[in-house]
Design brief:
The protein is an all-alpha fold. The chain has one domain. Helices cover 62% and strands 0% of the residues. α6 packs antiparallel against α7. The radius of gyration is 17 Å and the shape is elongated.
Length: 161
């Protein structure tokens, strides 16, 4: 699809969502859906990887991920972080394994891990993984017409993957 058409579609969608938000008093952005679904799913995957493969204790995992030990327990028992199946997306599955390995080894930098996390989130969004959840949270969206997350033009992480 021509980039100028994609841009026009993007601007039209944003205009529609802004109008809808004004009418209803709410607007659910794709990033909000990601924070409620993808981020917990990725944390759960990382926590399970650290517990199962790296044999870390829940308290160590909690410290590494800057979350509570109770959250680690929920993630490893699949009580939390199950809204989306990130295992469907190879790039995300590999990224969570790489992040877990880096955390377990102690050889990592915060900016590097944040970038890996954001790239994995963008990769998952580009597959349409959270589209149905977004529709449930923002009923005004028409899934057939909304390709916002799948557009390379609006990816929150630019650059080579």
């Amino acid at each position: 699809m021509d980039e100028s058409i994609t841009y026009v579609m993007f601007i039209s969608l944003l205009s529609f969502l802004a109008k809808r938000a004004k009418e209803t008093g709410r607007l659910r952005l794709p990033c909000e859906v990601a924070v409620r679904s993808l981020v917990p799913a990725m944390r759960a995957s990382i926590a399970k990887e650290l517990a199962d493969r790296c044999l870390m204790k829940q308290s160590q995992i909690a410290e590494s991920l800057n979350i509570t030990q109770a959250a680690v327990s929920y993630y490893t028992r699949e009580i939390r972080g199950a809204a989306v199946n990130i295992d469907k997306v190879d790039e995300v599955r590999q990224a969570t394994k790489d992040i877990a390995t880096a955390l377990a080894s102690g050889h990592w930098s915060t900016p590097d891990l944040m970038l890996r996390f954001c790239k994995a989130c963008s990769a998952a969004r580009e597959t349409g993984l959270i589209c149905q959840l977004h529709k449930e949270m923002e009923p005004s969206i028409t899934l057939r017409d909304c390709k916002l997350c799948m557009s390379k033009q609006v990816s929150c992480v630019k650059g080579p993957r």
